[in-house]
């Protein structure tokens, strides 16, 4: 068994698509209209057949509340691995990304937490 798809609730799919592709650098694998929303699946450009990240609309009250509460408590919804957290931090800062936690050492890893502009905190981690 392996993880093939995971999702993140977003409050604006178009804004999220722009942030996750243009700022973070993910590639679009699928972008298919589904009623009033879209099935947007992103992948790492280095692993086009790897795990897909779905930008899921938070149109259900439970999803909206879940997203809101995690954000209010400063809890990242997921983490992305990077080769060098400090280098990625500097790159993202230059692109205007707002960080809640600057790079720091924690339990043998280096991490940083930032706002995705769509209702979530994300964590980058260097192992």
TrEMBL record:
It comes from the Bacteria. PROSITE patterns: VOC (PS51819). InterPro entries: Glyas_Bleomycin-R_OHBP_Dase, Glyas_Fos-R_dOase_dom, VOC_core. Residues 1-127 form the VOC domain. It holds the Pfam family Glyoxalase. PANTHER family: GLYOXALASE/BLEOMYCIN RESISTANCE PROTEIN/DIOXYGENASE, GLYOXALASE_BLEOMYCIN RESISTANCE PROTEIN_DIOXYGENASE. This is VOC family protein. It comes from Lysinibacillus composti.
């Amino acid at each position: 068994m392996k993880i093939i798809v995971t999702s993140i609730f977003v409050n604006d799919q178009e804004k999220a698509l722009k942030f996750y592709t243009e700022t973070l650098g993910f590639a679009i694998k699928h972008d298919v209209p589904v009623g009033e929303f879209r099935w947007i699946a992103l992948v790492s450009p280095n692993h086009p057949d790897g795990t897909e990240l779905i930008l899921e609309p938070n149109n259900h009250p439970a999803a909206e509340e879940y997203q809101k509460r995690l954000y209010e408590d400063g809890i990242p919804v997921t983490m992305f691995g990077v080769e060098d957290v400090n280098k990625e931090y500097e790159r993202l800062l230059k692109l205007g990304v707002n960080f809640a936690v600057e790079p720091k050492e924690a339990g043998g890893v280096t991490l940083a937490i930032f706002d995705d502009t769509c209702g979530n905190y994300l964590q980058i981690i260097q192992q």
